[in-house]
């Protein structure tokens, strides 16, 4: 009788990129990125000085900048094989993005901002439990946004509160990957560290990977996996 050994297949990757290169115009020096493999459910801290291409890399990963050279596999899908529409759908269904300026919708309340991904993606909505509204409320509570603020205009919240609403919006519906672009730049040290810990705890509970980009060396302590981009040439 033949016995088969248990599978040793490695866990799927949230991000795998090889040989990524980007240049804004032919006269500008190209940005050459190191190869990256981020297993599903793991987190990576990406540091680098201004101009090293951190935000550009996030744009490539989430499909807002065109791939010019190299390979990118995102949550098991070859980005080069995706049409614009299919990449837009992948972003809506599987990516949560926390922008440096948060990009919250000014005429929506904190609760409505948090629910927005579930309005744009049926898959995100179906992954909420027990309902999209209940998960949004639970996330806002976990991120210490008091219920009395949930229906206020978003611009009545402090910068730190708006940042946590942006995190709740990124986390709802258990996306496979969260991309965070310098989201703590406006916070003091205590609130910055507290925010990162809450974000990572919530991501761990959902098996969501996090790629966290910052120039702030002090944040690296929260991440066992780290990568440094070089200074521009």
Explain what you see:
This protein is of the alpha/beta class. It has a single domain, classed as Rossmann fold (3-Layer(aba) Sandwich). Helix content is 33%, strand content 20%. The chain is globular and about 50 Å long. The N terminus is likely disordered.
Using brief descriptors, characterize the structure shown.
globular; 233 residues; disordered N terminus; five-stranded antiparallel sheet; Rossmann fold; alpha/beta; 33% helix
Brief write-up:
This protein has 233 residues and is an alpha/beta fold.
Arithmetic mean pLDDT: 89
CATH class: Alpha Beta
CATH architecture: 3-Layer(aba) Sandwich
Fourth CATH level, the homologous superfamily: P-loop containing nucleotide triphosphate hydrolases
| Biggest sheet architecture | 5 strands, antiparallel
What structural class results from the helix and strand content?
alpha/beta
Count of helix runs: 7
Order of helices and strands: EEEEHEEHEHHHHEHEE
Topology:
Blueprint: E1 13-22, E2 31-32, E3 36-39, E4 43-47, H1 54-61, E5 69-74, E6 77-78, H2 84-94, E7 95-98, H3 110-120, H4 122-126, H5 132-142, H6 159-171, E8 177-181, H7 189-206, E9 209-214, E10 226-228
Parallel strand pairs: 4-9, 4-10, 7-8, 8-9
Antiparallel strand pairs: 1-2, 1-3, 1-5, 5-6
Helix pairs in contact: 3-5, 3-6, 6-7
């Amino acid at each position: 009788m033949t016995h088969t050994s248990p599978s040793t297949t490695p866990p799927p990757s949230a991000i795998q990129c090889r040989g990524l290169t980007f240049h804004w115009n032919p006269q500008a020096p190209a940005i050459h990125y190191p190869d990256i493999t981020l297993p599903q459910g793991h987190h990576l801290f990406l540091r680098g000085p201004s101009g090293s291409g951190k935000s550009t890399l996030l744009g490539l990963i989430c499909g807002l900048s065109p791939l010019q050279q190299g390979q990118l596999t995102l949550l098991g899908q070859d980005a080069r094989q995706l049409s614009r529409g299919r990449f837009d759908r992948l972003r809506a269904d599987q990516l949560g993005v926390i922008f440096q300026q948060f990009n919250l919708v000014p005429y929506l309340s904190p609760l409505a901002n948090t629910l927005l991904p579930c309005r744009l993606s049926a898959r995100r909505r179906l992954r909420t439990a027990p309902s999209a509204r209940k998960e949004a409320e639970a996330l806002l509570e976990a991120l210490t946004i008091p219920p009395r603020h949930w229906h206020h205009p978003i611009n009545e919240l402090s910068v730190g509160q708006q940042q946590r609403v942006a995190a709740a919006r990124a986390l709802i519906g258990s996306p496979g990957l969260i991309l965070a672009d310098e989201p703590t730049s406006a916070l003091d040290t205590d609130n910055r560290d507290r925010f990162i810990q809450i974000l990572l705890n919530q991501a761990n509970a959902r098996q969501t990977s996090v790629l966290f980009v910052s120039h702030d060396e002090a944040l690296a302590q929260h991440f066992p996996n780290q990568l440094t981009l070089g200074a521009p040439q």
